[in-house]
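Reminder: ligand-aware prediction takes two inputs, not one.
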Amino acid sequence: MKIKLLRRLIQLTAFVVLLLPIWFTDLIWYGTYISAELAGIDLTDPLTALEITLASKTLWTPLIISAIPLAVVAIVFGRVFCSYICPLNFILELLPVKRKRALQARTLPLVSLAIVLVLSAIVSVPVFNTVSPVFAFMRMMIFGFGVEIVLLALVIGAAFIWGQKIWCRTLCPLGAIYGLLGIKRRLALQIDESKCIHCGKCEKVCSMGTAPARKNFEDASLCTNCGDCVGVCNKGAISFGMTGLKDKR
Ligand code: SF4
Ligand code: SF4
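Here is what comes back for the chain with iron/sulfur cluster:
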């Protein structure tokens, strides 16, 4: 099965599964994109756990423990939350917009991450959780359309003006923390230089404005391991592999 089709199926399944608790009880899954319970295991996204810890100035062990599973997934598989689970990414990828390469400020998401963490500590409120368009989407699904629609409209509007993933590439602190955790991921792209003809297709298809051959910190933190570049390379020069540290991009 083509990697893009497989990804779309996983995105769709994640979308449906996350909405199921709205209509059904007694599932092994219950919760939202930021905090959930799966078969009795508590799950919290690492950014939410950090924000709550800083906002409350309290180190609550169950919260920290609940952030470990998703952090481990990012450490091993990289930023796969973005490419396979995030509902906002799913919506953005279905928009009929171009993948423009404007605003090459690749470290801005890290600045955004630092800002929301510092602000959370100062105002004692988990800042990104309050204004996150990712969570706003979930709230809209549960409670109906409200003021959250403004946040989504801004992200979608920006996509039409500056390119499909402008939010993910330049602002989203949730993506940034997963990118940081996955900077030395085990599942990484492998390039077979002997097969590469430098046609540039892989770079053109990448919605995050990166390219599989680049190994610098910014590109590694932006790559979501989506596999679009693997699928587009008809020379078979790009593949995924579980690597040692020295081979990672
Ligand atoms: S960068 Fe943020 S909005 Fe974009 S896919 Fe990742 S978590 Fe979702
Ligand atoms: S480099 Fe490849 S795997 Fe990484 S984000 Fe771009 S298209 Fe996806």
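The chain has 14 helices and five strands. The chain has one domain: 3-187. We will return to this case in the review session.
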